[in-house]
Amino acid sequence: MDFYITAIMLGLCLSSMSLGIFISMKIFNIPDITTDGSYTLGAVVTAILLTAHWHAAAIIPVVMACGAVAGSLTALIHTRLKIDALLAGILVMTGLYSINLIVLGRSNVPLINVSTLFSKIHFFSNQGYNDALAALLFIGIILCIVTFILKTDFGIAMRATGDSPSMTRSLGVNTNTMKIIGLAIANSLTALSGYLVAQYQNFTDINMGIGIVITGLGSVLIGDALISWWKIRSILWQLVVVLCGSIIFQMVLAVTLSVGVDPNLLKLVTAIFVLLIVSIPRLKLNLRQ
After folding, report:
1. How far apart are CA 231 and CA 282, in angstroms?
2. What does the pLDDT average to over 103-116?
3. 3-state secondary structure the chain
4. pTM to 2 decimals?
5. How far apart are CA 85 and CA 90, in angstroms?
6. Residues 34-67: pLDDT tens digits?
7. What is the rounded CA–CA span in Å between residue 268 and residue 275?
8. Residue-wise over 65-98: b if at least 16 C-beta within 10 A, else e?
9. How far apart are CA 237 and CA 147, in angstroms?
10. Do 13 and 202 contact (CB within 8 A), yes or no?
């Protein structure tokens, strides 16, 4: 049972990143690879400040600001220098690896005897349940804030920018500014996932973000499939389904390990699973045609 609780916990911790990828990929149609770097950046900043005896709550705005700077840099390279968004993300992600290593000072930092967000709640005798409650409360607040932003006039302008940039420009909206702000929000959410995971696993590693974008992408694609099947139009419920997609993705990996698959093959299983999610709707479309 604890094994699956851990999977649910990871899904909750990574769901903030899923929201960020949903904003960049589904709202702005931008494949943002900055995720790998900004996720690790969030974890690195968390480790450094926790070991410096900062309160866990005080670290949140710092982590979000660092993630926002990373996302803004990618957007500026894309919009101002007219470089492809995918390449811009790769460039920033590559640069962030060195920055993260310099800030962290070594390859990994343990957080064993440090007070974290998850050590503040003691409602249940089982620590796993306390961790899940803390994560649920945190993600619930993030979900409410993101939903509120996307429902405002500014949020509607952001969504319109992704749907029809030419029409949005004709209405006097600066689409480049919208992309910069959108990617800043997306990567600040991704950095928050690094913040949560670092505290949950009690260490930060410089390589923890490598390939993490695939996990986020898989979660968003699961959510997108459910949104299409259930024909969900409410932005709140779309975000809720994306959060559920993150948990489903981690549960699939947990089941894969529980049936005896070699852990060395986990990345391969992840890639194949994401490929299936992407290809099944297109195969169905081809069969209909």
Report:
1. 18
2. 91
3. CHHHHHHHHHHHHHHHHHHHHHHHHHHCCCCCCCHHHHHHHHHHHHHHHHHCCCCHHHHHHHHHHHHHHHHHHHHHHHHHCCCCHHHHHHHHHHHHHHHHHHHHCCCEEECCCCCCHHHCCCCCCCHHHHHHHHHHHHHHHHHHHHHHHHHCHHHHHHHHHHHCHHHHHHCCCCHHHHHHHHHHHHHHHHHHHHHHHHHHHCEEECCCCCCHHHHHHHHHHHHHHHHHHHCCCCHHHHHHHHHHHHHHHHHHHHHHHHCCCCHHHHHHHHHHHHHHHHHHHHHHHHHHC
4. 0.93
5. 9
6. 999 999 999 999 999 999 999 999 999 999 999 9
7. 11
8. ebbbbbbbbbbbbbbeeeeebeebbbbbbeebbe
9. 9
10. no
Residue that the structure tokens 């024909």 belong to = 231
